[in-house]
Task: structure prediction
Amino acid sequence: MELWVTEYQTPALGFSCKATETLRAEQTDFQHLAVVHTEQFGTMLLLDGMVQTTEKDEFVYHEMITMIALNVHPAPENVLIIGGGDGGALREVVRHPGVVSGTLVEIDQEVVQASRDFFPDHSCSFDHPKSKLIIADGIQFIKDHKNAFDIVIVDSTEPVGPAQALFSPAFYESVFQALKDDGILVVQSESPFFNEDVIKMAYGGINKYFPITRLYLAAIPTYPSGLWSFTVGSKRYDPEKPVFTGKLDFKYYTPEIHQAAFKLPAFVKKIISEGE
Result:
């Protein structure tokens, strides 16, 4: 009998992968966690039935949620990641030469453990000398730290369950206060095809507090529609103008991709104009 895992991306659309093995399935204190091995994408992590990361295409998401801000900020020394318990974003952060400290705050210990058990290329970041891993509520952590970070990255799940409050204007205001005077915020803001309301919520909320707000895109096969958006709020620096000129080994990100990611289709421009 064949085993297939399906994420129902909308009430009328499902994304299915043929799986060879269920490696873990459990209800944590916060969400349902599953790890399966798929033929197409290798090992896959799902939270509440939604694909979070896979072995084969994770590099796109993790490079693009981190490197835009890291390469724009001239001194990205102290970086905070809220969520991202698989460790992939942290891996990219701590390998940047400008970073002195990368702090990851994850609410669900079991996500971290699953990554340690099944995603060694992600979880290697937890043992990096620049890394600090904290199991805590990211919303409260942000409130407790003022003027502390150069960059804040919100690597959250979709705005359901424990992640819902991470898309609120009140949270974006707290992040603004936690950033230094030239700080940058980056959030994942879902698919422009299926999640217009999320983009409007993120873009509008960030634009309320940050003088510079931009949206950029990346192609991620296992995320709904394959076209994914990120929203960046900057206190000072233009997100479209990278200043880091050193060399890092990337699979997706390039200086040309950095520029092109901000060139938006007309329908995406319309979404964010409605969210302003």
